[in-house]
Amino acid sequence: MSLFVPKFDETVLVRGAEAEAVGGDPVAVRLLADSSACGGALSTVRVTLAEGADGARPHVHHNSAEMFYLLDGAAEVLSGDDVVTAERGDLIIVPPDRPHAFAAAPGATADLLIVITPGVERFEYFRHLQRIRLGEATVESLLEVQERYDNHFLESDAWDGRHR
Q1: CA 19 to CA 22: how far, in whole Å?
Q2: Which helix (H) or strand (E) holds 126?
Q3: CA-to-CA distance for 43 and 47, rounded, in angstroms?
Q4: For the residues 109-124, what does the mean pLDDT come to?
Q5: Which residues fall within 8 angstroms of residue 129, CB to CB, at 6 or more apart?
Q6: Model pLDDT, residue 5
Q7: Looking at residue 105, what DSSP letter applies?
Q8: pTM, entire model
Q9: Cα–Cα distance between 78 and 158 in angstroms, integer?
Q10: Which residues have CB under 8 Å from 160's CB, separation 6+?
Q11: What's phi and psi for 140, nearest 5 deg?
Q12: First and final CA of the chain: distance in angstroms?
């Protein structure tokens, strides 16, 4: 097992009111701290999902674990072939190379703090998603940046069949 020691010298303070916001209803993302701000230690965002909204389709990260902490509401989270419902105060950590996805649970909203560690520069990924929402880029353009953001999409019968 190797130990990753991040290298940065100053405390990172992100004021909620000053965090960049991308998206809106039904999916709002607040960009909190990117990898470059903390020597590669982590990347963190806050995602707010309207009732029943999808947050992310099934994907894997080869080089990072992803943590989901439910600040409020309820979310469905895919981890491998399991779909679990997390509620306020619940924590889920998905290891590298494990398929995962998340969405607001049916009939609920969700407010999640999401942390990827070690960090990957991800803010531009969320800006890219916003360009897709605005029609300025295509969904297919995500395939071109999978390696850059360590975000590799895949199919999941467990996720697709969760409401049948």
Answers
A1: 10
A2: helix 123-133
A3: 13
A4: 96
A5: 22, 23, 29, 142
A6: 85
A7: P
A8: 0.93
A9: 8
A10: none
A11: -60, -25
A12: 41
